[in-house]
Design a protein that fits this description.
This protein is α+β, with helices and mostly antiparallel strands. Helix content is 33%, strand content 28%. The chain has a 5-stranded antiparallel sheet, sandwiched between helices. Strand 3 (56-64) and strand 4 form a beta hairpin. The radius of gyration is 16 Å and the shape is globular. It starts with 11 loop residues before the first strand and ends with a helix.
Length: 165
């Protein structure tokens, strides 16, 4: 998503790399988020309590300021890394709370990223994702709950994150 391309359903897509030497680094970004949120986002994109012996993908949702972040964390063996693992999180960032829908989209995009590369995924899938309107994310039984769900969830996520800090 170039800076002139606007998406209604999400604000940004980022990839965070976790490296023992360089620290948490935002290595790819499409879209725009406030620069002051970069460090917080990088820190929160590493799942808490993820056993280092467990490989594969791990999906989770967290909040940063007014954003909901739908993350897929991947850890795989990499002998070139100091810890012996490549650890990255693919994160879809949105102001909208539609956890199952956006988590599914994030997981699909993460799989594309991890199996190919960011530029290919960005060129192929981001323009398609930008055609989705936020009103299309919530359907069926949950459509009547969408307007109240966001406020309740932001408050509960904020209180749980401050109590765990």
């Amino acid at each position: 998503m170039s800076s002139n391309m606007k998406c209604d359903a999400f604000d940004a897509v980022v990839v965070v790399d976790f490296n023992v030497d360089a620290g948490h680094t935002l290595i790819h970004m499409v879209g725009e988020i406030n620069e002051s949120l970069h460090d917080i986002l990088c820190f929160r994109a590493l799942p808490e309590g993820k056993p280092t012996s467990q490989g594969g993908d791990f999906s989770f949702v967290f909040s940063v300021s007014e954003f909901f972040c739908y993350a897929t964390f991947r850890q795989r063996a990499d002998s070139t890394r100091k810890r012996g693992f490549l650890q990255q999180s693919f994160v879809l960032i949105s102001k909208h709370w539609h956890s199952s829908t956006l988590m599914g989209i994030s997981n699909a995009l993460a799989l594309e990223y991890f199996c190919s590369n960011f530029e290919e995924m960005k060129k192929t899938y981001i323009p398609l994702l930008c055609t989705i309107k936020s009103s299309q994310l919530c359907f069926g039984r949950c459509s009547t709950l969408c307007s109240t769900k966001t406020t309740t969830t932001v408050e509960s996520l904020s209180s749980s994150s401050s109590s765990s800090s």
